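Entry 14: structure prediction run for histidine kinase. Input pasted below.
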Amino acid sequence: MQHWFGTSLKHKLSLLTILAALVPLLFLGIFSYKMAESLTEEKAKTSGMNNLRQLDVYLETMVKDVENMSLFLIGNEGVQSYLKSSESNYVQQTAVINFLTSLAFSKDYIANIIVEPLGAKDSISYKSLVRSEFQDVTERDPDYYAEHPKWWSSVHRQWTFEGVRKMITLARLIRSTDKYKPIGNLQINLDQGVIASQVRQVALEKTGFVLLLDENNRILAGPPDMETNLALDAYYPSIGPFEGQSGDLVYGQGSGKKTILYKKMSSVGWKLVGIIPAAEYSSQNQYFLRLTAVAVTAAILFVIILVLFLIQKITNPLSALTKFLRNARPEEPLPALPVKTIDEVGQLIISYNRLTSRIVKLTDEVKRNESLKKEADMHALQVQINPHFLYNTLSSVQWLALMNQDGAKIAEMVGSLSDFLRFSLNAGQEYCTVLQEITHVRHYMNIQSIRYPDKFDFRVDAAESLHHLTMLKLLLQPLVENAILHGLLGREGRGMIRIAVERSGGFLDFAVEDDGIGMPEERLQWLRNRLAEHPAAYGQEPDARGSYGLRNVNKRLALHYGRDAGLQVESAEGAGTRITFRIPIVQEAKEWTREQSSKGENEDEGYDR
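Run finished. Output tokens:
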């Protein structure tokens, strides 16, 4: 597959173009499906909310009817007379019972009505009461009716001669109409089964259902398998708050994801909550999903056929051009190609013919730069083994011997000279490690410190972690020599030469600085201008004022590392000179260091022989 893809532009264009066309198609299909899924979900929400509104109307009507009935009962003369009398009166009881029966007879959701005096008199009820689990709110909050006119209870059971039923009770305190003093309590018991039946009839998709909650989110009515009076979070932990009069929220994730619809009843603190499993409305998208898959597949096949046809038309001229160039010989100049069209391929051939001559010129320039590199390296070597330097060094050795000086200094000077020349020659190697370059400078400084005793100090600041990094050789010694000749020998007293090597990201920064006589601004500007010249413009003769060593180092840096690696000179008259340059880190492998070391050992063996 990789060979098929990598050897043919036609194959690459075909595959990439097909992918470029297919990705939007696939995204369009996915987007369409998601939109349909979203619309289906929105439709399910709208339908469910309409059902909740219809149920809300029924329950609101029932609640208002019961509350109005309670107000009517409180003000009834027969009820007031019975509750105000000091003793039970059978005639009054019978009249009240008949009145309660006429009120509740036509309303299936009213299971019982109980009028309870505050004294020792008997309670009156629409249906004879055997036992009840009802506990009035005043048992836990005696002053509740002082601030609230009515109270709706949670679900509780009530036993009558007809059996046991679950009830939801509206309780009110009955006050006398003349003195407004408490004289009894009224309980209107709603049949929870009738309310639950109405709630369960509301259809929310196939498996969705509705719950009726009280003000504390406890279940008043719902599916048979959900227990009343339990808080909703017992079935759905950490369910979000119901904010506002109505709305929806999402509960759960994955296969357990559900859409929660809710609506708060305005006349009482109850809530209608609809729960729709997400799988219900997403399953309705299967038809649209299949339709989308068929449409996207047909579009993909059409795109593939069209792309292959267009790519064939485009790549035929390029294939002919490739066949023509394949027969050209690399060792010969590239021939001019015939131009048959003026489209992009034709313009490409015209540009190719124009670039052919440019390639020849660039080839000549590369050859010239390589020649300049070799020439600069040769000049650097010539500077390193300058006959004047050798003559002066050997004269110093002779002088020390004639003056019968310490033989250790003679040996040190000769040894440093030997190591200095050995590294300079180094079998023509162009690169070395930072440590080797610094060692080479130390050998040179050992020789110069014997020739010029008590004239300068020398210091190197370079972390050991930088010693193994590679650099172009013979860069630092000419800069140190320049510092001695043009900086320190002209000043009075002892001077200092310092070499600093630091790492900055992927670069090595070098600095050679002295505290010598420095140079005036005109001389500094002249030197900077000479260093800024193109390497090919450098003359072959050393400058009378001693800039040849600096220009040769600058030339080698530019040829090997690029123009940005050139020397930067800072100086102030009487304060010293600082010369810096930066080179990229091109090799850190210890294997290279070992290879160079083995070469050095072999060269040492040949030298000793």
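Notes: The chain has 16 helices and 18 strands. Will compare against the previous run tomorrow.
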